Structure prediction request, 214 residues.
Amino acid sequence: RWYDMDSLVYISGLSELEAVMGDDEKLISDVSDAARQLHPRFIALAGTPIPMITGCDLPAIAREVEGRTNIPSFAVPSNGIGTYVAGAGQALRLYAERFVLPAHEKKKNAVNILGATPLDFSVNGQVQSIARRLTEGGFSVQSVWAMGSETAAIDRAGEAEVNLVVSSVGLPAAEFLRERFGIPYVVGAPLGDTVSALLLGALQKSIHTGENEI
Prediction:
């Protein structure tokens, strides 16, 4: 995705001694200073093996950063050992918990596409093809998590009638949106005519019954 936009992903830049000795102030100050210069919408701290081994309290650091910057901050419970599915999936759920707004009304046949990341879908038009399949099938795309949609559209994900989970990364967010907003989800990717027809039917069924379809 960084072919089309700037990346705001950074490493902590801590020395080995600072990391081992737990110099939290250095990390907090560096993140806060960068945030004041870049003005991000939110700050996510993702863990790697070293903070896991040293027992770094990333949630506490996130709260301190948020207190200093007044920018929403949270820690992703990753450790660099599990698969990307766990870390990316939790990141999307944490975003949903923090930012998705209550829906005053639903948009008829509106769909959120969940789990569309560059790790599973490259920049070769796959996500656009999925969205086009949905549109041709009579649906509208409310938001894509998280390739190609503005944050404003993602924040209004609660207005959708159903979620389409196109990879395992999208499941944690789908489960949260189901719990919080009652949005059922369908698992699968509309790739090919046969599978697309089955998924479009499953989406309509899920809207009418309120049940998940896999």
Q: What stands out?
A: The first helix runs from residue 16 to 21. The chain has a mean pLDDT of 91. The first strand starts at residue 43 and ends at 46. DSSP finds nine helices and six strands in the chain.
